[in-house]
Amino acid sequence: MAAERRVAFVTGASRGIGRASAIALAEKGFDVVVSARTLKEGDTADGRPLPGSVETTAAEVRARGREALALRLDLLDRGSMEAALETTWQEWGRIDLLLNNGIYTGVGSMVEFLELNLDDVETMFRANVFAQIFLTQRVLPRMIERGAGSVINMVSAAGLSDPPAPANQGGWGYAYGASKAAFHRMVGVLAVEHPNPNLHFFNLEPGFVATEAMKLNDPKGELSARYGGAPPEVPAAVVAWLATHPDAAKWNGKTVAAQKLCLELGLQPDWRKRAPS
């Protein structure tokens, strides 16, 4: 009898950590729902010149021998989230892993507190907290009914610590950090409320990763100079490990430092080593 299909639903999968995670999950045998705002290469969801698209990532998944659904999903458009979920259930009938990776880093992310516009703060929370609540509330009951499943939330050091400097001077703004702090609280609560040993809830803190969006948000390179950075494949390798390895269960309800665990487990070559000149 053929092995039962495993389905991963990945948000923010057009580029960066989401794209790398979709590929890593495909390499571990998952069929992947690749979702984001940018459907086609060359399109720009918010006017910024970012490479990557849902269709490009889906092609990478298929190149690994797995199936892909390329779907539009906007964290600020609840209808698009509902439609993506409905399409997934109609086409594949299940979601075994929800990777809440997509984030909003638009207006207000790098603004000092006294300059904040409350409408921008509300938008930040809609995209970085309420959207993830919506998706998880839709997906989790079916996991509970089936008796198994995983939710991985891509959190941020900005939600766990104070910035080392003001926004745009090597730090980040309050609104972004506050939204990620609220998001961070989800998995601990879920692990307590749903103690089934086959249900797993993880926070993954990727560390500083030099994604395409990060480079646009840090044009002067202050954050890059301060933190260095790992490639997106590093947190992606940890996503795949959490989704498949039995030892991952000990991290249920906890926060995983992706770069530290990746090094400890040898999931990727040490990116900190410089090539000889």
What does this structure look like?
It is built from ten helices and seven strands. It has helices spanning 16-27, 54-63, 78-92, 118-146, 174-184, 186-193, 212-217, 222-227, 233-244, 258-265; strands at 7-10, 31-36, 68-72, 97-100, 149-154, 199-205, 255-257. The chain has one domain: Rossmann fold (3-Layer(aba) Sandwich), CATH 3.40.50.720. 42% of the residues lie in helices and 13% in strands. Strands 3-2-1-4-5-6-7 form a seven-stranded parallel beta sheet, sandwiched between helices. By secondary structure, the chain is an alpha/beta fold.
Identify low-pLDDT runs.
none
- Rg is 18 Å
In one word, what is the shape? Answer: globular
Could you give the count of β-strands? 7
- The number of helical segments is 10
Query: Mean pLDDT across all residues, rounded?
Result: 91
Content-based structural category? alpha/beta
Given this structure, which CATH class is correct? Alpha Beta
Biggest sheet, strands in spatial order? 3-2-1-4-5-6-7
CATH architecture group name: 3-Layer(aba) Sandwich
The CATH topology label is Rossmann fold
CATH superfamily: NAD(P)-binding Rossmann-like Domain
> Beta-strand percentage?
5-15%
Q: What about the largest sheet?
A: 7 strands, parallel
Helical content class: 40-55%
Total domain units: 1
Measure the end-to-end span: 53 Å
The run of helices and strands is EHEHEHEHEHHEHHHEH
Compact overview of the structure:
This protein is an alpha/beta fold. It has a single domain (7-265), classed as 3-Layer(aba) Sandwich (Rossmann fold), CATH 3.40.50.
